[in-house]
Design brief:
mainly beta, three-stranded antiparallel sheet
Amino acid sequence: MSDVEKHEGGCACGQVRYVVTGEPELAAVCHCEYCQQRTGSAFGVLVYFKTENVEKLKGDLKGYEHQTDFGYRFNTEFCTNCGGTVYWLNNTKAGMTGISGGTFDPPTFWYKIQNEVFCLKKADFVENKIPNKFDELPGWNEVTTFQVIKYIR
């Protein structure tokens, strides 16, 4: 018998269902404009698992690819019936699948969120106790500086 936890979830109408195995590799709140737009809210809750730990059980999905102002590419998958975003792939998280945090069955927020990113876009009314806060994505400034120096040379 395995001690590895499994958690199920799905979209609002129940057409799309999934199960994840184990703990997430990363759980964060993101205030970037794309997360605000795709959720229709002030932020997105991002929960990343190794792709092999995500089993898509059922549902018709439609995809949408978006490139952010920062150059990140998201391949988002959402329910064709209710439109709820369930999964995505992000070019900065190779080998991982993102799950929309609010789509887990109760207890919905069973995972621990340690990071808050793109706080420079954060709505003034959002307050929380997340320990690690970043104006952008951690490491972005170093990458940007390196790319600018490389371009100038």
